[in-house]
Amino acid sequence: MSKDSPFLTAAPVLVPMPAERAYTYAVPQGMCVAPGSVVRVPLGPRLVAGIVWDGEAGSVDARKLRPIEQVFDCPPINHDMRRFIDWVSQYTLSPPGMVARMVLRAPEAFDPEPWTPGLRLSGGQPDRMTGARERVLAIAAGGLSWTRSGLAHAAGVSSSVIDGLKAQGVFETVMMPPLPVVAAPDTTYAVAELTPDQRLAADELCACVRAGGFKVSLLDGVTGSGKTEVYFEAVAAALEQGRQVLILLPEIALTHAFLERFQNRFGVKPAEWHSDLPPRMRERVWRQVAQGTLKVVAGARSALFLPFDNLGLIVVDEEHDPAYKQEDRVFYNARDMAVVRAHIGGFPVVLASATPSVESQVNAQQGRYGRVVLSARFADAALPNLRTIDMRRAPPAKGSFLSPLLLQEMGRVLERGEQSLLFLNRRGYAPLTLCRSCGHRFGCPVCSSWLVEHRFRGQLVCHHCGHTEKKPEACPDCGTLDHLVACGPGVERIAEDVKEHFPDARTIVLSSDIAGGVRRLRLELEAIAKGDADIVIGTQLVAKGHNFPNMTLVGVVDADLGLANGDPRAAERTFQLLSQVTGRAGRTGKKSLGLLQTYQPEHPVMQAIISGDSELFYAREIAERERTGLPPFGRLAGIIVSAPMRAEAQGHARALRLNAPEASDIFVLGPAEAPLSLLNGRHRFRLLVHGERRSDLQGFIKAMLAAGPKVRGQIRVQVDIDPQSF
Ligand code: ADP
Ligand code: ZN
Known about the structure:
The chain is built from 19 helices and 31 strands. The protein is globular. The two termini are 56 Å apart. α1 (79-92) crosses α10 (334-345) and α3 packs across α4 (148-155). The relative contact order is 0.08. The protein is an alpha/beta fold. The chain binds adenosine-5'-diphosphate (ADP) and zinc ion.
């Protein structure tokens, strides 16, 4: 390299795109970069943010490279986080750049937060004193600088009072450094008085935190046993050691009540992280997490990819929840990746659930995870009395979906001024619409699924791709007018059913379709908790985590719903969901009841729910998985091949299978049509790769993809390690 070259060296930079490795860029003279630096680099015609990666750039002529444009003035992505990116990339078989992309999800955060103008007393006096002015001056006398609205709020006056004082020179303007997103939590703010059982559990978790080092604890406690109170003690212990804490929660709608509980314990709310966060807030949270100034984040699965400076504990609440699985671009399970993150960082992780996943149960049984158990509900809250309603013996009246037994109990609850919840995990009015004259069924034009009627909106909607059409008056096939019938119920139809029977009851329908989005949902949940509804009809959104003190009856409209598909995980999922739903009842001292409408009351899931014997249920599930070599006793991966043309997708999948390497411990099944064989205009075929517990599934799949035909044109191949359904 010639002496006068402005570029002295080269550096590898990982850019946020599907690149298999870091690209090499020149480092201009005088620029200082190290592994982890966040930099701006040219990529094709664009400028993107990337991470300076580890390793040598290789022997290249730096003069031929494009230079790094800028080093952002933000904390570097630390060593642990870079190892985490590598690990997730290798495990999920996603390009490392796509994992880095999940870390760099707050583009403006890389520039320093601007300072903002504030006010400070100048020493001048106002022309005359009023009560309002006195209050302002008393508060500002502390010598701190204030924002205009912050000062007005603290003094309880309107901003115009502040403006008046400023006009008279009582205040001077100063620039203030950025404020923290939230103040530091106070671990001694309101220490909970734990029951002896809870104390034992909390002590065990706190001991792990204080000892430091990697350790997974499964916090296994029935709904309402106080798991949150218990893991808050572990959070406090980590904070006292000066470490940062991440709490993962499965649903955003849930977080609001959670934030308040956190505030009751620690005096401030934790920072939130999820896709509904306004961009400005995202940037501030990202930056302050990286700086280490923000101590606690409560977030959705994507929070796992925040670049914590000094993370010392992760809690995964409702660890069994399917919402932790991302099935888009990078396919990962946040629960499992949280364990990996903790392993890399050398700190403990707590997995909390009333109905742990079979995987975590087995890990605890085999001693890889510690198990901390809470066996009783807190205080006088008793678990609801649970019964099945055999729908063959007590069928609903014609046109209704509610058994007379359920209606009778609802009537009693209504008379007592208490609340009922009817649970049906199906959005909309009816899952199928057909023509009574010709039998035409309304299907999605681009998916292999029926359109769901949403009567409130007058539309037919595909729940997979979002395709929407107006519900016609006449059948599009035979033209007959007014012969379209709705088949089966969704929550909207159950609401109609309820209105028929209890016209004066106050009802609320809750599903993700609710107009007004998350904000409105939060308001409705608060309204229910306050008692502003008599009967709530909801999907799984209401099943999770909420505390409704006056709810004494939970009716499951179709307890068999989740069991119908042939998925080996169906029983586990149904058990978890039904346990959670029925757990909404009886959270205070009142007597409560859970009723499950079913056509198969003898099914092991129903038996486990009503007997409360989850141990027997898990023992059977685990034995079955062991017998069939399914996870966690064996390993599974799905490979989905999709294309607009059916033959193209199928042909590619077949060719992949033919090119699978020889292995005695790994089998390839398929290709078969994927569970949703047409999605968004793409035909989908699936190969299932089934290995033993210690098989190198990733190595096998990599070899198979490398040996198979090139992915061209419109074909897409997605690898899903540890698929949700199998
Ligand atoms: P879980 O997460 O196991 O379902 P929670 O932590 O939500 O249970 O506790 C259920 C209810 O009992 C909550 O309202 C909680 O505030 C209350 N609770 C639990 N333990 C205590 C305690 N030690 N002191 C006061 N309230 C408690
Ligand atoms: Zn569709």
